[in-house]
Amino acid sequence: MRGVANLGEISGWPVGHAFILNQNGTRLVSSRIWHFSHRDNFRSLSDASEQLAVSRGEDLPGQVWQRGEPVWITDVEHDQSLREQRDFSHLGVRSAFGFPVKLDGEVIAVVEFFNTRLTTPDLNLLALARGVGNLIRHVIERVQWQEERTLLAAIVESSGDAIIGKAPDGTITSWNNGAEETYGWLAEEVIGETVSLLLPPGMAREESEILEAMKTGRRLDQFQTRRVRKDGTLIDVSISVSPIRGMDNQIVGTSTIERDITARRRREEELSKARDEAEQATRTQSEFLANVSHELRTPMNAILGMLELTLQEDLTPLKRDYLQTAKDSADSLLLLVNDILDFSRLEAGRFELEPVPFNLRDLLDEAVKTLSLRACEKGLELICRIDRRVPGRVIGDPVRLRQILTNLAGNAIKFTEQGEVVVNVKLVDQTDSTISDGTDSAPSRFGGLPGEQVMLDFSVTDTGIGIAPEDQERIFAPFAQADASTTRHYSGTGLGLAICHELNGLMKGEMHLESTLGKGSCFSFQIACSVADPDETDAVRERSRVSELKDLPVLVVDDNQTNRVILEEMLTNWSMSPTPVDSAQEALEKLSSTRRDDTGYPLVIVDALMPETDGFMLLEQAKDEGLLDTATILMLSSADHQIFGDRCRDLEISAFLEKPISQSDLLDAIMTALKGPQLEQNGVVQISETKQSLRVLIAEDTPANQKVITAILKKRGHQCVIANNGREAVDWVRNDTFDAVLMDVQMPTMDGLQATKMIREYEQEAENHVPIIAMTAYAMRGDRDKCISAGMDNYISKPIDAPKLIRLLERLATKYPRRASLTPETFGEELLSAGESPEEETQISAGSSGKPGSSSTVFDMAAALKRVGNDPEILNSMVEYFFEDAPVLLKEISRQIQVGDADELARAAHSLKGLCANFNADTAAEAAKAIEEMGYQGDLQDAPEAIPALKAEVDRLTRELTQWRTEA
Ligand code: ADP
């Protein structure tokens, strides 16, 4: 501190010493900066002073600090205020003055001077001291600034990033070590240059854009670009640029921090490539699985269909058992394939929900009904309960919802040995998110308004084996089963719950499980649905029906508490007046008490199976006592009610209701029972509708599937023509008349979509429309759209479900009746007697021949007999005609082929076809018809080849008929 020395020299005071504030600013301590005229004379003073640490007000420096002003002490030896800290009696000085050094108005140091003589305050000296204080302050400021600068520079220098300063015109002004390392240029090589030497070719614009951005004062944060090093290599960098402002806030330059991210980039790229590859592999695997399972379904179709058909034949018990086992295995294989297909599609992200409006109650009824047989076989009560406030129609994916519920309920049945399985649907009250069970006293309301969102809570509860806590989380994972032993005891794949869980996720729901080992489990989930427009006709019909039932007293007898509650709920919903009782005893009491007071129950609903006195015994007893004279009786039973056959003979039961009872079935049964005639005595009415025989073109390339579909349709009494590909199908439609076309989508030569388009084009000219039903294994939404837009009317997926196919086919055929009606001698009508139900037909043909299983396929004498009005004589003559005419016609056919007369050939073949058709000899008739067709087409090229087949069929028929004649 030169200021202290200078002042000492100027003033002639021999000792000067500076105190500075300690680190935390609480004391003044010696700076060890001194000015001495003769140091040795003042050893004891300097020793005493350098020990000192004074607070405000203490000793001389403390007083200066406190006042912030110079302080003058004329006689230090006798000044009381100094005594405490330094004992001036032996320090060799007499007078002293001190002055402060201030920074921003705060004292940061104090300088003291001592004299060996007594001196009075000297104003000039004090003024000079003040000036020196200011000087010292400047010096301190500079020192501090310098220190900070050095520190900052050190930080900048030590940074691994390139930190580059630039002037507004882009000239480099500073270049740190990091920059040298990153770019390979030394500071002295680049300072004064522009950054263009760092820019790869073609990127010059970038720098001018940066400079432009800086002018607006904007910061650029971590943008990624490329730069070139001194050695010419390109590197990836991340750059942040900020403007530097001068005192007047003007932009005086820019500072950029540039980081070499080449290595990081490379790592990222490698990682993302690896991730892409892994994802692709998973996708490929899932897609492969999806495709394979999909391909598996096609042959499964043929296997299942053939087994089903064979099982309908007359078989020895052993063969039936073998085939039934094969069919059971094929069924479970198909389930497994379906599960794998679903799961792999879910995994591959190729699963889409198909939301449509549907009736929730119907869906639950159907889902539960399919499981009722299994529940019944195990002696379990399967109960379906729907909160009355749950809307009737909602929008959602019914197929998938049904799949989840069937899966959960199926599991519940599988893992329960006794007790009950309850499927429950409730409405979640969204205001307070409590679940309503519909039994509260709040005004009842059937669902929300159309378009409104409702939250539905589905649960499946069982009284089965339960799931251990440690397994509860795990079983939702694919292929997981609660423990290894269950795999052996209960078959299964462990895919069901995983699929439910995923599907539920797609529906934005979450699956919950509560379970106690040995007590049972409850699987539940909640999903939001919007309420669909009500089906007006349903609603009106139900309202008008229900009004007739108002206040009708009903006695409900069931030992199962849950069932009683549900029945009571349903009946109350329709404003009836139910009385639930839990035993036959109680029922009898109720019946007799009401008879006493003359009220009675017009309707009694009785559970067939109850402990002690069962439903039948109850009814018998009540009848004996004359308690049921006017009552209509409905009996609740499980799926096997036929076994009660005899027992209900005299009981006049109006209807059997299969458990679980659906709301709509119950209402139907009540209405029919109260109004309609009583059921037939055995309690089962089989109403088989009269179906008109349809002529159906089957376009399908796989022979096995051709056979299955043909067989299904023939059983139903329809006639089939096969086209092996799309081109053949188009030809057939152009040259013949059909009631409907079943069109496989994937076929060689011309696929189903192309064929349909061509048929539709042709039909435009002909002003005709034959219903076309697509058959495809692809059950995906896009494919269905493709079929419809190609002009198909509807769609059925493989494996073909026979009842579904028949329903669809017949519905469409009725919708689009064929223009040219069948002439009486048309093949089909001769061959198949319209009006026979397929059941009847099957029965008769099975029992028709002396040699079951072989000749029954050749002809059907029972049907023939029926057609001729059950007159054996006529039938006998028909056989004789055949023996006489058939050989002649066969010869005629061969001759006409030789001479090439197509018309005559057609006529002869037509006659022979008629002869065979008289005995429902389908195959022989077909063979004749094939040749007849050739005649009509005028194309005799293939005719010679067709002769042996026809001859073989006619011979076979002749043999069978001869045998029949001997047996008859
Ligand atoms: P699977 O039944 O085909 O094995 P799931 O995924 O449907 O496959 O079920 C997985 C496992 O969860 C079952 O194997 C069984 O151990 C357990 N589980 C599922 N539902 C129930 C239930 N209701 N009660 C007891 N255990 C159950």
Task: Explain what this protein looks like in three dimensions.
The protein contains 31 helices and 29 strands. With 968 residues, it is α/β, with parallel strands linked by helices. Helix content is 47%, strand content 19%. The strands form five sheets. Strands 12, 13, 14, 15, 16, 17, 18 and 19 form an eight-stranded mixed beta sheet that branches. The protein has a six-stranded antiparallel beta sheet with strand order 3-2-1-6-5-4, with helices on both faces. A hairpin with a 6-residue loop joins strand 1 (15-21) and strand 2. The longest helix is centred in the first third of the chain and has 50 residues, at 262-311. Bound molecules: adenosine-5'-diphosphate (ADP). Residues 411-412, 415, 462, 464-467, 475, 480-482, 486, 492-498, 521 line the site of adenosine-5'-diphosphate (ADP).
Q: Compounds present?
A: adenosine-5'-diphosphate
Distance between the termini: 145 Å
Shape annotation: elongated
Largest sheet: 8 strands, mixed
